[in-house]
Structure formats: C-alpha cells, structure tokens
Amino acid sequence: MTKTKMCEFCAVWDELSNLTPLFEQGKTNVSYYCDRCLPDVKSNLLNLPYSSLFTWGKKEVKK
Ligand SMILES: [Zn+2]
Predict the structure, then answer these.
(1) Least C-beta-crowded within 10 Å: which of 28, 42, 52, 60?
(2) Average pLDDT over residues 11-36
C-alpha cells in the first residue's frame, strides 16, 4: 500500500515519497509539500520573521 499525504500548499494528494516534510518547532503535526510547490513554500518561508522555527525534513525513500 502506498502512503499518501496532502500537500498543504496546493491541497493535492501525492505519494509520501514525492512530498517533503516541514517540521515546526513546538508542534507535533507535520506539513507536507510536493515538489511543484516546494520552491514557492521555501521562498515564502524565508520572508517570515519566524522562519527559524521551521525545519525541512527529508523525503521518504521509495521502497
Ligand atoms: Zn503542492
């Protein structure tokens, strides 16, 4: 079974291996972003004053 998650940016469901997780300090839920949105999300984040609270994770390796 393939795990899928929704991209928080475009709200499109994709395989977990195509999504990059974004962790926010102090929060347990993880946001996922697809490759199409990743550049936009990253540049948006850089403009946030609290961007240091966010950490990008690694994409899950396809098995
Ligand atoms: Zn997306």
Answers:
(1) 28
(2) 96
